[in-house]
Amino acid sequence: MTAKVSSGYGHSGVNRRGDGRQVAEASDHGGRHVLVAADKFKGSLTAVEVAQRVTAGLRRALPGVEVETLPVADGGDGTVAAALAAGFERREAAVAGPLGHEVTAAFALRGDTAVVEMAEASGLQRLPRGVFAPLTASTYGSGELLRAALDAGARTIVFGVGGSATTDGGAGMLTALGARFLDADGEPVAPGGGGLAALARADLTGLDARLKDVDLILASDVDNPLTGPTGAPAVYGPQKGASPDDVEDLDAALTHFAKVLETAFGPDAATHAAAPGAGAAGGIGYGALLLGARFRPGIEVMLDVLGFAPALARADLVITGEGSLDAQTLHGKAPAGVAAAARAAGKDVVAVCGRLALTPQDLAGAGIRRAYPLTEVEPDVALCIAQAGPILEQVAERIGRELAA
């Protein structure tokens, strides 16, 4: 729900907006309007919690400031949570986890638009602690989650990919949606990327017919191809427990997968394998492209879906951020996308973060006037992670004091 609230700090009335955003407003708003559009601090605070803590800190220093919160995500884990915070309805489905066990996965729905996060079904967080399955983990549950969105009436599906436990090229997802991948004996190949080495024939004729009438958007912050030196196995396989031998086997299996699909799908199968985003989330991007998905940078898609433009128009200052502002931030992460949109609209932008690894020149190039890392308050990184909430409030209070000056 959306409300103008004091977030438990100070006194104010309540005004329902109905668009999913929250606005903290005192009776004397002082003419300042701050938009908090930050991603999560991974491992310590969700994007919603970041927004709450920043709001609290700002209002300590500047009780009259009006604060609008719009938690954001770039397509990876936290994407559904951001949509829910923006007023989407939570839906759940029982699907297969990456090892085949049943899990309850959520997606977000508003009207006929669904936001589906593959990590909800096939993410690393769905594996038992300390367990990796680089050769056998499957995206089957992600396909079931897409099917649940179709069943709910979705005509536009934003498919956020990232944080996967899998490297199967989306074969599991496609199987859940009606495709068949068979070995030389006509039997289904084993789940996971490793099983694709035995693939002899692919049959896509049974794919869910509803997919032809859906606008499927592949939202990702990476643009890797499926295979090769910058492909899914080589770049992301080690993060999922793949040894050097596993990486070599997975790259060969996915190369073979794409080659076999040329017979069933045509020459576009090879084109899609080399396309930006095909290697996202263990190659599930490739499977999505085969389904006709449009690849777009995740943060751009999410800003559109969340209604960032009208919120930006109301703001005098934008506060963005994430756990670590570093070189990766500049390549499609949420703060860079927020800052680019804000700069285009002529809005001032500052960032909060756990740690800062960018120069002032890097920040200026991204459209961020200044960054405020938690480590300026508490140099001990472990304490910053453990006490991220209270320290972030202190950082936001400092921003508020500077606004009041």
UniProtKB/TrEMBL annotation:
Q: Name one GO biological process term.
A: organic acid phosphorylation
Q: Name one Pfam family in it.
A: Gly_kinase
Q: Which InterPro entries match?
A: Glyc_kinase_flavodox-like_fold, Glycerate_kinase, Glycerate_kinase_RE-like, Glycerate_kinase_sf
Q: Which keywords does the record carry? A: Kinase, Transferase
Gene Ontology MF annotations: glycerate kinase activity
Superkingdom in the source lineage: Bacteria
Chain spans, region Disordered: 1-28
Biased segments, Basic and acidic residues type: 16-28
| Kinase listed as a keyword | yes
Q: What family does the database annotate? A: Belongs to the glycerate kinase type-1 family.
In Swiss-Prot or TrEMBL terms, this protein is called Glycerate kinase
Q: Which organism is it from?
A: Streptomyces roseirectus
